[in-house]
Design brief:
It contains 5 helices and 4 strands; from the N terminus they run ααβββαβαα. It is 40% helix and 17% strand. With 144 residues, the chain is an alpha+beta fold. The chain has a 4-stranded mixed β-sheet with strand order 1-2-3-4, with helices on both faces. It is globular, with a radius of gyration of 15 Å. Strand 3, helix 3 and strand 4 form a beta-alpha-beta unit. The protein has one domain: Endonuclease, Chain A, CATH 3.40.960.10. It starts with 15 loop residues before the first helix and ends in an 18-residue tail after the last helix.
């Protein structure tokens, strides 16, 4: 995209091995979503799994879209994990990365809605409305 200046994404080589381990031990939800993202299947955009960025690893990342996708299992409703997710999301946002967050259950049971959300984001991005969306609401289960 001409005229589009992307921030340089800092790669932390210390996370390479952990990233590989996470790819090799993917959750069912990650495997399911990956079948729709791999090989540029989603509107020809290139996504990567368990991508190290700064001091974090995101579940899925597309550098052209500056988009991270995070999947949340039941542990993400725990206060400690929720706080870590919040810090991670704030840092990614500061790097110019938009974070879309989905619950594992939704990936497993309502893929149509997940894909529609992704298509909507990409269409807005392509139309030049690539200003960052507000931080995504973190799933907190019943801790609202």
């Amino acid at each position: 995209m001409s005229g589009c200046v992307l921030n340089k994404i800092y790669y932390n080589p210390k996370l390479k091995e952990l990233s590989r381990q996470l790819r090799n031990n993917s959750t069912k939800a990650e495997i399911r979503l990956w079948t729709y993202l791999k090989s540029k299947q989603l509107m020809s955009y290139d996504f990567h799994r368990q991508k190290p960025i700064d001091n974090y690893i995101v579940d899925f990342f597309c550098s052209k879209l500056m988009l991270a996708i995070e999947l949340d299992g039941y542990t993400h409703s725990f206060e400690e994990i929720y706080e870590k997710d919040k810090l991670k999301e704030e840092r990614l946002h500061a790097l110019g990365i938009t974070v879309l967050r989905f619950a594992d259950d939704d990936v497993m049971n309502d893929m149509e809605t997940i894909l529609r959300s992704l298509y909507d984001y990409i269409e807005a991005f392509e139309m030049g409305n690539n200003s960052h969306t507000p931080l995504s609401p973190l799933h907190r289960g019943d801790k609202k």
